[in-house]
Amino acid sequence: MPDRPLSILFVSSEVYPFAKTGGLADVSHALPIALRELGHDVRVMLPKYGNVSERRNRIHEINRLKEVPIAVGETVELATIKSSSMQNPRTKVQAYVTTNFTYFDSKKGLYADPLTGEPYNNDERFIFFDRSVVTTCLLLGWYPDIIHCNAWQTGLIGAYIRTMHTKEFANTRLVFTIHNAVDQGIFPAISLEKTGLPKEIYPRITHAKHLNFTKAGVEFADAITTVSPTYAKEIAKDKVISGGLHSLFRAHHIVGILNGIDTYHWNPKTDPFIPHHFDSTSWKEGKALNKKALRDRLKLPHEEKVPILATIARLGEAKGIPLLVEVLPTLLRENVQIVLLGEGDPSLSATLEKLAAKHPGKLAFIAGFDDELAHLIEAGADMYLMPSLYEPCGLNQMYSMVYGTVPIVRATGGLVDTVEDFDPDTRTGTGFVFRDYAADDFVGAIKRALALYKKPTYWAVLVQNCMSQDFSWSTSARQYEAIYREILARR
After folding, report:
1. Is 0.85 topped by the overall pTM?
2. 8 Å CB contact between 206 and 180
3. Which residues contact 170 (CB under 8 A, 6 or more apart)?
4. H or E stretch including 138?
5. Distant-in-sequence, close-in-space partners of 92: CB < 8 Å, separation ≥ 6
6. CA 15 from centre of chain
7. 412-454 per-position pLDDT tens digit
8. Range of the domain at 359
9. Total count of domains within the chain
10. Distant-in-sequence, close-in-space partners of 440: CB < 8 Å, separation ≥ 6
11. Which one of 61, 205, 209, 399 is CB 3.0 to 4.6 Å from 216, fit for a cystine?
């Protein structure tokens, strides 16, 4: 007899196409769809921020989920849970969207003011959201087999279910996925009272005398996962990469499951955001035409033999942007053009703007995030720079390979699991890997790549190696399915 389909509630603070700051949104879109394609009843839940259009995303009201009171400390705010959906050509997944003016609709950013960078009152916002998730299940009378919580913003859901609603959710199992161990959701101890949780569990949801959403997520989960096998090992032993929670992570069994990518949204054969489609048999022509379109858009001179090196990233230390800034003067002396797209640290952004103004024909910096341009960059660039200080999984190196753009990466986290250093003798490998977070190592890897680029036969083999990789969600989704069934089988 085949296994029965499971009911799964997938909870995330950002889900593409509704709201996105990084890879979490892409995962929260693609994995639920992949699970739905396996036959499961999957629903997604997220908050609606002030920059999310209800009309464009077809978000509509549900009569029985209007103006639901949610307590945050002594304050009671009303949540209206609305409905939408996300889909690919083969399947559709329902989405529940928590709306509230005070905590979400009145704020244009997801976690911080986009103009000042000042964080919002995120302790209250995500206490409110987590309680709205539990309340939605209660009002619907729907107690799924699995509630899959993602990142710190969902970390209190397990605590609410296991302390305040144990009877209703007796048959529900909880999975908590760590997407970035450093980003933990840490707030002053006074925030504990805002949770409404019983005081006897405070030790389980605090670390270093602070409320810690990530610790709560780990403590109350039936299974803990993270987004690559190497990263699972790193966070259990490295104090810096784990954000100081290495002892906690070491005390629990954490399974590293490599993220996949959405092969409908990221596919050079069908991508609506690029002007010229291509596959592994036509990549040379496709790459050349998209490179021309990218240069036209960014007003870079057309130099046929000059490679384009690109980065699309949040501007910060985690993505290695300070290291990239450090090596840019050296790189700009090479016969290359460099394209950077990103937002984040204002000082890094200002530095990149000055460098771009100083080198207008060689360096283009676009501040902000532009999904359509991101696709064109992946299709038009020859090499992708990813010098991450740490990288839980990374998606752009996978997007790059699918588009025939060779990744140059540091050996950390999921980059170890997805990029193999190219060996010209055996003609195996998919990119260029450097070990130490140091300018000399990074520049050395780039120069190896530039040298190989001048050897078209070898470069063609490397591009073919990249484009032959399978990064679809099918394998990873089945790994999650196996975890779901294993924890459901426990007594």
Report:
1. yes
2. no
3. none
4. helix 122-140
5. 36, 85, 86
6. 9
7. 999 999 999 999 999 999 999 999 999 999 999 999 999 999 9
8. 283-467
9. 2
10. none
11. 205
